[in-house]
Amino acid sequence: MADVIIIGSGPAGVSAALYTARAGLNTIILSMGSGALAKAEAIQNYYGFSSPVSGQALAQAGIEGAKNVGVHFETGEVVGVGFDENLIVETAAQSYQADFVILATGSPRATPRIPGIEAFEGKGVSYCAVCDAFFYKGKNVCVLGTGEYAIHEIAALQPVAASITLLTNGEKPSAELPDGVMVNTTKISAITGDDRVEKVQLADGTEIATDGIFVAYGVAGSTALARKIGAQIDGNKIVVDENMATNVPGLYAAGDCTGGLLQISKAVYEGAKAGMEISKLARKIR
Ligand SMILES: Cc1cc2nc3c(=O)[nH]c(=O)nc-3n(C[C@H](O)[C@H](O)[C@H](O)COP(=O)(O)OP(=O)(O)OC[C@H]3O[C@@H](n4cnc5c(N)ncnc54)[C@H](O)[C@@H]3O)c2cc1C
């Protein structure tokens, strides 16, 4: 059991961790490695450098600094967040519990550009199996994805759906599939239907009749994780108050995932704000 789990080791997550660890809270950062920052070749608009610094070097220095104050780093792809008595963070391998969780997962992932996907959102296209599986009791559903995140969504659907087909849209599945799940690797040309999703049209001219499609492409992004735990989102950003708190008690968000200025300085500020707020609250409940 950790005091604080931070998902993401970019400027927002690491900045938050500096505050919580220095306040004496047991802090774990879970991440899949570098985010947007490492993609920046040279940064010239961040305080404190006489000449441009590479994003990779800045990210590494931030992580080293956090390790030096006792932040514990673990590598893992977070596929779900939830709660029972405590907040729960799930990777494919493990489930973690914490009093506080900070989502610092960067910009939301792009959804695949498949005609019909946006038009049928909420009409058969879902981004959260935990939230919507029950509506598909006894129905035939598809999950769009290839990896651990898709497998996590399949696990939530298996107890209720009549059949599940994994659609990989031209890619190879990258995780082991549970028994009983069908796979179709053909590229998808469109999702069609009348008022609701009815069919997936494939590039080879065939089609699959379906009642619903769960999008779990790539890695679970910030909005997908927020949806799972019932945190409010607005478009593709997580809604937070002035202390970076979401509407879910104990759950905070910081950095690119809250929208606005997509810059290091803003991510660092929001991380600091979330970290300070959590440190203050933790002192009160102890
Ligand atoms: C090419 C490029 C150039 C840029 N140049 C500049 C610049 O010059 N100046 C500037 O101020 N800003 C620049 N930026 C923007 C800056 O990099 C971002 O604003 C900043 O990195 C946001 O920090 P963050 O912590 O919110 O997210 P990120 O840095 O994106 O970190 C996200 C973290 O979340 C982790 N993560 C995501 N999903 C999961 C999951 N499911 N499970 C586990 N971990 C997960 C990732 O592994 C990563 O550790 C640039 C961005 C890019 C792409």
Automatic annotation (TrEMBL):
GO-annotated molecular function: oxidoreductase activity
Entry's transmembrane regions: none
FAD/NAD(P)-binding domain span: 3-271
Key words, A-Z: Flavoprotein, Oxidoreductase
Keyword field contains Flavoprotein: yes
UniProt feature coiled coil, ranges: none
A Pfam family the protein falls into: Pyr_redox_2
Family annotation (InterPro entries): FAD/NAD-bd_sf (IPR036188), FAD/NAD-binding_dom (IPR023753), Ferredoxin-NADP_redctase_2 (IPR050097)
Protein name: NAD(P)/FAD-dependent oxidoreductase
Origin species: Caproicibacterium amylolyticum
Organismal lineage: Bacteria, Bacillati, Bacillota, Clostridia, Eubacteriales
